[in-house]
Amino acid sequence: MLPLDGPAVAGILAHGGTILGMHNRCDPFHDVGAGGADVSAQALANAAAPGLDGLVVIDGAGTMAAAYRLHQRGLPVVGVPKTIDTDLCSRS
Hints:
The chain is globular and about 30 Å long. It is of the alpha+beta class. The protein contains 3 helices and 2 strands; from the N terminus they run ααβαβ. The protein has a two-stranded parallel ribbon with strand order 1-2.
């Protein structure tokens, strides 16, 4: 973990989550690095250990689905959609 203060995030606009070691296959319910195993309990423990109040998740449908499942297990989550598919619905 690292604090994301001004100096830490200066110049990362074009890099996004890659500065955190993230990629589009990070699903704690089917972890690629663990042979497809469910490591969601460890993810929840990792969030609880430093006393995080919750997560702000910025990404597409797959990430939002995983974040929602973590939320269902007690982790507060704010989801901010980021999509290139223009698949967000809205009501006027």
